[in-house]
């Protein structure tokens, strides 16, 4: 069965579940289905808040405090363009190309770029078979992408193929094995508590989602088990990139106390009626996350890397 490219007709949860035996088809259907609400679901924006976030992640992973603009950049599994479009606005990237297995996500990324006043080239693409020539890009970036790819080492080999000699890849926001374990449990507890409390009469009218929305959210959460294929030990991830042929490989973990805040916050936001929280809540949550991230940078000197929630990785193509 070939995936539909009709981005006006997103798949239902049931269609995604039925495609579990064909994971790449499931990835397309699920992410097409998520494309319209993805930015709201993850509080994605293209303002100073997310511009700073994207640049901070890039600098933390590369260890480069003042990166020069990279001329030609590819984002792998771009989704709605969160990472590459904000890095472009931050002055890190110049010419941006976006790829994703989901046609609806590619369309969303191109629409977001147009909204920001610049164009990007977008292609529907499999990370294990990137449709660009050898030695095309100065940098390849990605955010929360390789945990969806069946063969991670094959994806790294493809990334290195399309990079020019000396070109760099930077992949951020991948779940660690330990971090994923506690984050999912925090999310389930928060979901149960929030949906129980918002059903109470004093809170129901303003805060509670209707039953249909809750059911759809619950199905989406359950279906993440179909499309979330991997969690990573930082050392194992580095060895995978080295086997693929990268040099100068470096991993960086982050979010420990910040994850203990971030996952309940994101789950709470998903469990209440859209629009109930407002911009003030978003800025409060982001500010609290920033403060705890500063604490985590201090803890990183003593706490094992594998206990943090996120791992990022960078490496260079030889030559």
Helix/strand layout:
Layout: H1 13-18, H2 23-34, H3 38-41, H4 48-62, E1 70-75, H5 82-89, E2 93-100, H6 103-116, E3 121-124, E4 137-143, H7 152-162, E5 163-175, H8 177-197, H9 201-207, H10 211-227, H11 234-244, E6 247-254, H12 257-271, H13 278-299, E7 310-316
Parallel strand pairs: 1-2, 1-4, 2-3, 4-5
Antiparallel strand pairs: 5-7, 6-7
Kindly describe this structure.
This protein has 13 helices and 7 strands. Helix 2 (23-34) runs antiparallel to helix 10 and helix 4 (48-62) crosses helix 5. The chain has a 7-stranded mixed sheet with strand order 3-2-1-4-5-7-6, with helices on both faces. The chain has 319 residues and is an alpha/beta fold. The longest helix is centred in the C-terminal third of the chain and has 22 residues, at 278-299. The protein has a domain at 13-177 and 230-255 and 311-316: Rossmann fold (3-Layer(aba) Sandwich). 51% of the residues lie in helices and 17% in strands. Helix 6 links the parallel strand 2 (93-100) and strand 3.
What key attributes describe this structure?
single chain; disordered N terminus; Rossmann fold; seven-stranded mixed beta sheet; alpha/beta; 319 residues
Summarize the structure.
Helices cover 51% and strands 17% of the residues. The chain is α/β, with parallel strands linked by helices and 319 residues long. The chain has a domain at 13-177 and 230-255 and 311-316: Rossmann fold (3-Layer(aba) Sandwich).
């Amino acid at each position: 069965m070939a995936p539909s490219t009709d981005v006006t007709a997103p798949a239902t949860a049931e269609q995604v579940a039925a495609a579990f035996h064909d994971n790449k088809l499931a990835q397309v259907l699920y992410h097409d289905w998520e494309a319209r609400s993805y930015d709201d679901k993850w509080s994605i924006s293209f303002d100073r808040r997310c511009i700073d976030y994207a640049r901070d992640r890039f600098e933390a992973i590369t260890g480069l405090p003042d990166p020069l603009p990279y001329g030609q950049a590819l984002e792998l599994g771009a989704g709605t363009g969160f990472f590459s479009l904000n890095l472009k606005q931050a002055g890190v990237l110049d010419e941006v190309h976006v790829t994703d297995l989901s046609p609806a996500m590619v369309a969303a990324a191109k629409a977001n770029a147009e909204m920001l006043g610049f164009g990007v080239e977008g292609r529907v693409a499999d990370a294990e078979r990137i449709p660009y020539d050898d030695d095309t890009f100065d940098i390849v970036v990605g955010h929360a992408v390789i945990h969806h790819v069946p063969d991670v080492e094959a994806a790294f080999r493809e990334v290195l193929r399309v990079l020019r000699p000396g070109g760099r890849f930077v992949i951020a926001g991948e779940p660690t094995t330990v971090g994923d374990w506690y984050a999912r449990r925090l999310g389930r507890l928060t979901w149960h508590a929030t949906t129980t409390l918002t059903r109470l009469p004093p809170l129901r009218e303003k805060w509670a989602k209707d039953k249909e929305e809750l059911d759809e959210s619950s199905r989406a959460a359950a279906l993440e088990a179909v499309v979330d294929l991997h969690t990573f030990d930082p050392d194992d991830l580095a060895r995978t990139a080295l086997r693929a042929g990268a040099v100068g490989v470096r991993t960086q973990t982050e979010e420990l106390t910040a994850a203990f805040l971030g996952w309940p916050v994101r789950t709470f936001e998903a469990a209440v009626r859209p629009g109930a929280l407002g911009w003030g809540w978003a800025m409060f949550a982001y500010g609290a996350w920033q403060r705890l991230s500063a604490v985590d940078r201090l803890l990183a000197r003593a706490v094992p890397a594998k206990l943090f929630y996120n791992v990022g990785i960078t490496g260079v193509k030889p030559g």
